[in-house]
Amino acid sequence: MTNIFRHERKIFVLFVVAAIIIFSGLGFRDAWPPDEPRFALVAKEMVTSGQWLIPMRGGEIYPDKPPVFMWGIALFYVLTGSLSVAMLLPNAIASLITLTVTYRLSRALADERTAMLSMLLLLLSPQFLIQAKFAQIDALVACFIWVGIYGFIRHFCIAESWRCYFIAWGAMGLGIITKGVGFLPIFILVPLSFLAFKKQLPTTRWKKRALLGPLIMLSVVLVWLGPVLYLGAYQQDPKIQQYLSNILLKQTAQRYANAWHHIEPWYYYIFEVIPLFWFPVLVVLVFKSKNIKRVLNDNPAYLALTVWAILVVAFFSFSPGKRGVYVLPALPAVAMISGLLLSRSGISKAIGNFARSVTLVISLVVFITGTVLLLNEKTASSLILRFHSDLSTITKLGAICLLIGMMGLVTQFLNLSRHLVLWLVIITVIPSTMGVWILNEIRTPSQLLVRAQTQMSILSTSIGNMDVGIVDVKEQYLLYSPFPLAHFGYHTEKERENGTAWAWLKARPARFLLAPKDYLFQCVDLEKALSLGFAHRDEWLLISSDAAYATCKLPSDAPVYR
């Protein structure tokens, strides 16, 4: 009874620590580029327009992703009234669910100790933590994928459960309308069917009713896709047809087979992503490599998870377009395998010393960085110039680094488990609260937009009738602008955008245009432009209508969005 109570207390503490780490910093910062302002803007427009079916940004259809992630942000925006809180909640909740599923599946397949170690290894993994604390789409889709894996493993490896089996297919449907790769749990049916054929798993769980699974997945997808297909195919809406072509073909099959950006070599994940971002689980695999074959042979479900993780990494490696976050769904499976190895063979002194060495080096580096930022004027000056910041911001960051480094060094005197947990809390909670609060002004264009508003009020006598446009638009400018902004499309060719912006600027007085200096805007007298300073490494110009030339030969037929 005492052991059970001790285990329950440890589990409770671990979940509380995980929640503190994941949820800390909510509301301390706004959406940061490159991806967060896009999703936040789409969600905000859903709430303000009342149109949730088709994702829109700045009045223009956003064609790259299905809407589920933005629905999550929009829902929490309605509930909380704070976009800075709402944008982080879907991933925070999804990551806590992923940890819970990892714990429950590990406990069902092995034991309590294995479950706790698997959960801790996942929580220590940089890729998991980064995605849990940022408003990108991958943590949510990874959660749906992992729920799918949980359902299949429960049904085929633990105890027959058609409820879990059908939940797996439903989760895949949600994953697909979150991001196209939500179908990845299907890959685990390959090793599971092979193991059943080899009589290492029960064969009685493959029945005719299993064919209902794909229908459930399709039904979930059609909840959203059905109305969109109706608008495109039946009502022949050309914008919806273009959206469907993009989301169903260009952003899926074409992006996988013939990617046009993020081009990386086939070994990108193996040598550049996994060693750094899966570091803790990889260390265990290396130190316990002699036991891997024996442990996997004794545990068919873990063998299936191993094959599935390899298939996921291979699947993304075959595509020329790669981003590190793509392989995130496989990380919980590898954490489970590492947790089992660690549980079966014990935490050796070598692993303990290595873990302490890594945390010691990181703490020392952070401590030295803080010291340099506070005492080295040359370094501080170069950072001020590079990031267009000020001395007080650099000083505050230096003090925070010094605090984190000192506290990290103090934890070295605790036993290994307490040291790792407390060190992880320090290294994540302080930066995600105090750190992001200080960096927020640098990471958003709010100050630049306020300067623009001040200058326009000086130049114009009729603020109420003032129009402002922007070229080379990024979502953060639309999201943080204190005044309405016109833009000319995210995918408009530069010459066409330039000509349309000139025509719009010249059409009436009291119009202003925001443009990056390196955009090299044509058909206006740039000598009359006013520099607003820097934001996101670009110097921005304010161009008034009286700077527009009388004529311009560039095409001017692009749409204008507000």
Structure explained in plain terms:
The N and C termini lie far apart (about 65 Å). This protein has about 550 residues and is mainly alpha-helical. The chain is built from 24 helices and 6 strands. The model has no long low-confidence stretch (mean pLDDT about 90). It has helices at about 1-25, 35-50, 70-80, 85, 90-110, 110-125, 125-130, 140-160, 160-175, 190-195, 210-235, 240-255, 270-275, 280-285, 290-300, 300-320, 330-345, 350-375, 375-385, 390-410, 415-445, 445-460, 475-480, 495-505; strands at about 55, 60, 465-470, 510-515, 530-535, 540-545. Strands 3-4-6-5 form a 4-stranded mixed beta sheet, sandwiched between helices. α5 runs antiparallel to α6 (about 110-125) and α6 crosses α17.
Keywords:
24 helices, mainly alpha, 6 strands, Glycosyl transferase, family 39, transferase, globular, two-stranded antiparallel ribbon, 4-stranded mixed sheet, single chain, RgtA/B/C-like, 5% strand, cell membrane, LipidA_mod_glycosyltrf_83, 562 residues
Structural topology:
Layout: H1 2-23, H2 36-49, E1 56-57, E2 60-61, H3 68-80, H4 83-86, H5 89-109, H6 112-124, H7 126-132, H8 138-158, H9 162-176, H10 189-197, H11 212-234, H12 238-257, H13 268-277, H14 279-287, H15 292-298, H16 300-318, H17 331-345, H18 349-375, H19 377-387, H20 391-410, H21 416-443, H22 446-459, E3 467-470, H23 475-480, H24 494-506, E4 511-516, E5 530-535, E6 538-544
Parallel strand pairs: 3-4
Antiparallel strand pairs: 1-2, 4-6, 5-6
